[in-house]
Amino acid sequence: MTPQELKSSILQLAIQGKLVPQRPEEGTAQELYAQIQQEKQRLIAAGKIKKEKPLPEITEDEKPFDIPESWMWVRIAEITLLNPKNDLPDDLDTSFIPMTLIDDGFRNHHTTDTKLWGQIRKGFTHFAENDIGIAKITPCFQNRKSVIFQNLKNGFGAGTTELSIIRVISDSLSRQFLLSFFKSKFFIDNGVKSFTGTAGQQRIHKDYLATCLFPLPPLSEQRRIVAKIEELLPYIDRYEQAWNKLEAFNKRFPGDMQKSLLQMAIQGKLVEQRPEEGTGEELYQQIQAEKKRLIAEGKIKREKPLPEITEDEIPFEIPEGWKWCRLLDLCSLIGDIDHNMPKSVDKNHGVLFLSAKDLLDDGSINYTDNVKYISNEDYDRLSRKVKPQLGDIVYSRIGACLGKARNVKSEVKFLVSYSCCIIRSIQIDVDYLRYYLESPIILAHSVKARQSIGVPDLGMGEIKKYFIALPPLAEQKRIVERLEELLPVCERLK
After folding, report:
1. Model confidence at 403, in pLDDT bands (50, 70, 90)?
2. I want to staple 429 with a disulfide (CB 3.0 to 4.6 A). Which of 34, 273, 368, 476 is the partner?
């Protein structure tokens, strides 16, 4: 049960007479009702209030639930005054309360502004100290924007026209008990059923509040019910705090678990090491030999050597058979296209031109939905530098998508904007490298290293310098297998 459901349940018990026991010595609601009617007649005779039209009698079919014998079903307008008016001097300081200053939920709280009465007496809803205000428009009504007005400037105020006002006659009712009723699920649900108006501007029916059924207990019991609710509130608040912490944990848990798995993977803690699979050093030497061959054949360019990794730079310990490398050491290409944005063309006359937004959260690349196309001429010009191919990694280096890495698994002809770069590895399991690039250690480094002028982006030099913990190729494949077994479990937990 959520905290909101618990609060709602307690209020429902309260208005059904199930929260505290009944006491015969406290009298009956019938006696209280008679006193209220007597006081109303006195006020009518004195000319202080107007005589109202009689309300329809309450039938047995209308009664929504059973109440104690000492209680009585009444209509709200029978026992209160609705929407009274203030007659005040224009130069009197009073309180002004728009809807934004009234808290929603189960709290009884509001703040106020101060305005001269002459400024707010027309076009606003009038109220006085200890009146109850109830929002009548959606979604404020469903959100329980209802409150007892207190500490009003000179005891009076006005506010939004989207309020209905309830005034208790001569302290004949507990205002707190009334407010509990107005925040109850019973009152809200029935109010919603009465809604009139257009979508977004719906309000409770103009007669809903007056004719609404109210379970009236004796006054002393009302006060005991309120005291019991106030006694329970600190426990509910603590329950809500615990609930919110649990909800926050549950929301974080799948993502935290994913991050932990990736971190364990790149630290060599996800699968066991097997000496027969060789070492990271042996794989590294094979990669360097292949790079020299590609350079000699003119297939790739020789790059400036990067600084060696020092002991102080190493972020964590790795297994004995692994080796620390820089990303460029393991790749034949890390690059992006020219930074001139080409014009879009019709899909039937162009080539796919993707960007960081097309690196989808499900681990794939979007080639079809709401994608951009560029001319063949622009493709030929821009692809001289970088042309994606099967087995590459598209790596986002800009904006909100920073750090996303996606494998090219399709032979679809496309180009990717400079919001991403292309990473082409040599004799590395491409899935292992992709997972590595999305690990917490790399993400933290990328966020720290990005340039903050304009749209935050990550320079190519920083990407090339990434630290990579290199295991033997066979172990890379076993790590990937294990990740692909465990990561879907995390997804199902979301």
Report:
1. confident
2. 476
| AA letter at 361 | D
pTM: 0.61
Angle between helices 219-266 and 473-493 (to 10 degrees): 170
Confidence of residue 210 (pLDDT cuts 50, 70, 90): very high
List all residues 6 or more positions away from 242 whose beta carbon is below 8 Å from its beta carbon.
Answer: none
- Residues 251 and 322: their CA atoms lie apart, in Å, by 35
Burial of 161 (0-12, 13-18, 19+ CB in 10 A): exposed
Task: Work out the burial of residue 43: count CB atoms within 10 Å of its CB; fewer than 13 is exposed, 13-18 middle, 19 or more buried.
Answer: middle
Two structure tokens written together for 238 = 């603590």
Containing H/E element for 165? strand 163-168
> DSSP letters along 17-62, please?
T-SS---GGG--HHHHHHHHHHHHHHHHHTTSSPPPPPPPPPPGGG
CA nearest to 177, candidates 86, 104, 79? 79
**At residue 250, what are phi and psi to the nearest 5 degrees?**
-60, -35
Q: How many helices and strands, by DSSP H and E, does the chain display?
A: 14, 19
Tell me what pLDDT residue 250 has.
Answer: 65
The answer to whether residues 79 and 169 touch, using CB atoms and an 8 Å cutoff, is yes
Residue in 324, 325, 332 with CA at minimum distance from that of residue 303: 332
| Residue 160: Cβ within 10 Å count | 20
Residues 241, 243, 248: CA angle, nearest 5 degrees: 95
Q: What's the longest Cα–Cα distance across the chain?
A: 110
Count of residues in the chain: 494
Report pLDDT digits (tens) over 305-335: 888 888 888 888 999 999 999 999 999 999 9
Question: Contact at 8 Å (CB) between 412 and 369?
Answer: no
- Are the C-beta atoms of 291 and 300 separated by less than 8 Å? yes
The domains of the chain, with CATH numbers, are 3-242 (3.90.220.20), 273-472 (3.90.220.20)
Cα gap 414→14, rounded to integer Å = 66
Q: What is the pLDDT of residue 20?
A: 95
